[in-house]
Give the backbone structure.
Amino acid sequence: MIFFPFRDYPESHLQIIVDSSRSPLKLEKFVLLRLRKNTVYSGRIDDQEAAFVLMRGKGKMWVDNVFLGETGVRQSVFSSPAWSFYIPPHTSYRIEVQEESEFAVVLADSGVTGSGKKTEANFIRPEDVSIKRVGKDAYLRDVHTIIGSSFPANTFMVGETFNQPGLWSSYPPHRHEKNQPPQEYKLEEIYHYRFNPERGFGVQCLYTDDKQYENAYLVKNGDTLVIPRGYHPVVAAPGYSMYYFWSLAGERRILSPYEDPAHQWIHSEGKER
């Protein structure tokens, strides 16, 4: 299964959206954690590493009974950059929220790299997020990298991308499908979408050179798509701002998108196509 449409789920509940039993991804698991006001939620991370990204609300985090940090208030994903928590393997955690809150949570197998690198719990504030405007004209977007390749993690990279109405992202179309360094490194990916206003929508494309995938998905608020391979451009409908949470995971944490050669000419628009 590639596409996971939104469905409502109980409050104060960790809802599994994507795992290896229901998708072709081998390394990543994606869940949503929604908590009522004045709620405490506890759990444990075993052989995975995890990132908790605050989508709305406010919360405090403890790891192994040691206080890690307290977020500010995030009204929505569109209101400010995110507060996030990185949780290493073999760690217990506890979250307390003062108001209704929601976290996007990605977990990835921590031993896939074989590095044996020990990582530490980390509180990531909005000022720690790398914000970059990418593209131009009809494919201009803002990319917020929360956990990048230089962050001390083992397997994943995590961030958020913001599209203005009618604009494209992941464009020119690119993929992370093969290990052919330095041009490309194999990474699987997850997208989770939100829109402003919430009734908005976008179109997510997914295609491969061998045509195993040649699909377009109508994506709405709360939908999720997994990208095991292939080029994956996406566009927001006019009138609606689009957000997507993204996570990438692989044996080598190097982001080097391989662009579809058929569309690379757009970088030199005006020349022969």
